[in-house]
Every structure is written in C-alpha cells, then in structure tokens.
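Worked example

This section walks through a single chain of length 190. The input is the sequence exactly as stored; nothing has been trimmed or padded.
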Amino acid sequence: SAYGKARLLLPMVTGVEEVRHAREILEEEKEVLRRKEIAFDENLPVGVMIETVAACLMAEAFAKEADFFSLGTNDLTQYVLGVDRGNARVAHLYSYFHPGVLRMVRQVLETAQRTGTKVSMCGEAAADTALTPVWLSFGLKEFSVAPVSLLPVRKAISLWTSKEAEEVTEEAMSLETEEEVREFLKAHEK
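Given that input, the structure is written out below as tokens.
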C-alpha cells in the first residue's frame, strides 16, 4: 500500500462486528509493520462487499464502519432470490432483472447517497447495458466490469440523459415480474 493505491475489501460480511474485528486485526498488523519499519499506507481504506441480504439491510450501520461499498450483484441476486445459480433445476429462476433484486439494490444505493458512502457495483448486472439507465437513476457512479464489457458499458452510460434514465427506471420499477422488467428494459436498451 506504500507504493500505490490499495484498498481492502471484506467479502461476505453480514454484521458490523465482522468489520470491527477485521479493523482490529488490521491495526495489529499495522503495528507489526511499524515495528519492522516497513512502509505502508496508514489510511488504507477498508470497504465492505454488499452481497448478502443481511448486508443490504445493515447498509446504514456498515456506512459508519466502512470507507466504501462494493455491491456484488452475482451473489446478491442469488441470495435475494434464494436460488443456487449452479443448480440446473432452479438456475432459470436466477435473474438480476427480478423486481426484488432491483429494489434491494436501490435501497443500498439510497443509503450510500444519504450517508456519503462511495459505492461501486460489480458482477454481471453491472455489465448488462439494459440495466444501465436503472443503475444511473439509482445514483451509481462506479461500475466494475470485465475488460470485454468496459467499452459497451461506457458507451451505454454516455447515451442516457438523467431524465431519460429516470423515466425508463420509473416504468421498470412499476412492473411486477422479472419477465416484464427484462423485456421492457431490453426493448429500451440504447
């Protein structure tokens, strides 16, 4: 961390006590480095992966403990829907277009805006350009995507005005099924 910009991201957290414990361990390790006179970033940012339902519901409390959030949409979708995406018998039910998933993401992004917590999104949903207007209208500013998705997502972001994104999102969020949401957003994809 002394030779570049490093951040520590804690995965699969469900409670504030986990973040506090991780910070205690980090402080112990910083002390070891100080004694050994090894350079490091004293202000290493510590973030939380928001990828469980518990983490979503605890986002406000996590905002007091973490420097940033990373919204992990692959696992979050799986846990919100209770669907094992690796199980062929139920994998067809896994979809980040599900209204419940979108509402959960919106709740986290609203909390992050209210608390001033930086948040990025990773996972397949971040790279799906049909959802770009939804994420933009929810206030997402940082997308973490695979290199192959970088240019398509960047282009999609540039094609939406705030007003257009809000109008499409308002309509999408009024729909009640995954199929309705997916078809509507795919039909309005730029």
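What to look for: The two ends are 40 Å apart (CA to CA).
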